[in-house]
Amino acid sequence: MVSLCCSFALPTIAYGEEAQTTEEPTLQTLTPNYANTGTATESKKFHNWNFSFQETKTVIVQPVKIAKSGVLSLSLSPDFFKNQYRISLYGDSDLKEHLATYYYDNTKASTPITFKLAKAQTYYIEIESHEANIPTNSVTVTPILYGNSNRQIYANQTICSYSTKEQGAIFYKIVAKGNGILKFSSSDAGVKVQLLNGNKKAISSVSTLRNSQSPTSYTVKKGTYYLKVTSPDVYHFTYQFLGMTVQAGHSIQIAKQISFGRTYKGMGYLLQSTNQADWYKFKLYKYKKVALKFHVSDDAAFRITIYDTNKHPLPSGSFALPVDGSGTLLLKSAAAWKPGTYYIKINKTKQKTSGYYTFWVK
To answer: pTM surpassing 0.90?
Structure first.
C-alpha cells in the first residue's frame, strides 16, 4: 500500500522504520494518512501507529477521525496474526452503530483490512482477541484513507477505492507523456473499466479487469485520457505505462529500411483507421530463402501483407493475426527469392481494437 504524508495525531510516529510501542495508545485519536495519488516518492513517507494488548485485556477500542468519505485501509504487522482477532467498525463511541466486521488470523496476514466510509466523522475500531489469556503483544498499523473522488493517477501505483450508488463511477485522469501501452489489472472481482478520451468520450468497450498475468491494455498516442471504473465493492487496481517508439514509414514510398535478424516493433492505436499502415522494406542482394516471424498482442487485430520487388502483393502473401487463437506466425519461403527490394505492410483490421506487434526477417 502507498500513502501520502499527512498530519498525524499521535506522539509516536515512525517514518519508514520500526515504530516504538506507546503505553496508552487507546487514549489517542488516530488520523490516517490520506492517499490521493500514491506516487512512489510519497509512499516512502508513511506513518505507523503502535498499540499493545496487556495480559488482562483482550479488547481495544480505537477512535479514528475521518476527514472525508472513502476507503480506510489498515495494514497490520505480521506478528499481529499469531492469534485470531475480530476487527469491527462502529459509527459511535458506545459501539451500537455496527458497520462492518472482519475475522483475521495468520492466513490473511498480507491482506489489508478495508472499510467503506460514507461520510466524514469519527469512527471506532474494536479489536478483540479470540484468545482467553493473550500474552503481551504489540502491533504496528499503517492506516491509509483512499478517497473516492475523481482524480489523476500515475503509473506504477495501486489504487484503492469504491463508488457509492449515487456516484456510479469514478473517473481517473491519465496523462500519457508519449505513445505507448496503458495496462490495468486487478485481483478483485467485478472491476469494470472503460477508456475515455480527453473530452470524456468512450474510445473503448467496457472490460472486466483480470490479474497482472492478463492485464487489460490500451495502445494510445501521447495525450490525456480518463479511465471510468465501476465496481460493486471496494476495489484495487494497478496502472502501468509502457512507452514505445516506432520508426515505420507511412507509405510504400517512404518505407522503413530494416536489417536482417533485428526485431522491430510497432503499434495500432485506439481509433486508428484501418487504412493507416506501417511500411517496412528489406533488400536481397542475391537469391536467398527468407524467413519472417510476426507476433501480435492478445488484444490486437492486424493484417500483414508482403509485396514483391514490383510493389505488388505476393500470391498468398497476406495474413491476419491472431489466427486460430495464436498471435504468432512464422513464414519460410519454399524457394529462394530473387534479388531486389521487398516490402511489408502492417495495418489494423478493426478500428476499435488496439495493440502492438513485433517481427523480424532473416
So the answer is: no
The bridge status of strand 70-76 relative to strand 137-147 is antiparallel
Model confidence over 193-204: pLDDT tens digits?
Answer: 999 999 999 999
Q: What is residue 65's three-state secondary structure?
A: strand
CA 27/CA 266 separation, integer angstroms: 60
Grouping H, G, I as helix, E, B as strand and the rest as coil, residue 336 is coil
CA 175, CA 152: separation in Å to the nearest integer?
8
Q: Which of helix, strand or coil describes residue 97?
A: coil
The DSSP output letter for 326 is B
Cβ-count burial of 267 within 10 angstroms (0-12 exposed, 13-18 middle, 19+ buried)?
Answer: buried
Query: Which residues on neighbouring strands pair with residue 100, listed in sequence order?
Result: 89
Give the Cα separation of 84 and 301 in Å (integer).
51
Euclidean distance between CA atoms 102 and 59, whole angstroms? 15
* Locus of grid cell 502507498: 2
Which amino acid makes up residue 294? F
Is 339 in contact with 290 (CB distance < 8 Å)?
Answer: no
- CB count within 10 Å of CB 45 equals 14
The confidence score (pLDDT) of residue 296 equals 95
Residue 43 gets which letter from DSSP? H
Picking from 264, 255, 302, the residue whose alpha carbon sits closest to that of residue 282 is 255
CB 38 within 8 A of CB 3: yes
Query: What pLDDT score was predicted for residue 132?
Result: 52
Rounded Cα distance, 177 and 189, in Å: 30
DSSP state for residue 276 in the 8-state scheme: -
pLDDT tens for 163-192 read 877 788 999 999 999 999 999 999 899 999
Amino acid identity at 89: L
pLDDT tens digits, 209-256: 999 889 999 999 999 999 999 998 888 899 999 998 888 999 999 999
Under 8 Å between Cβ of 321 and 304: yes
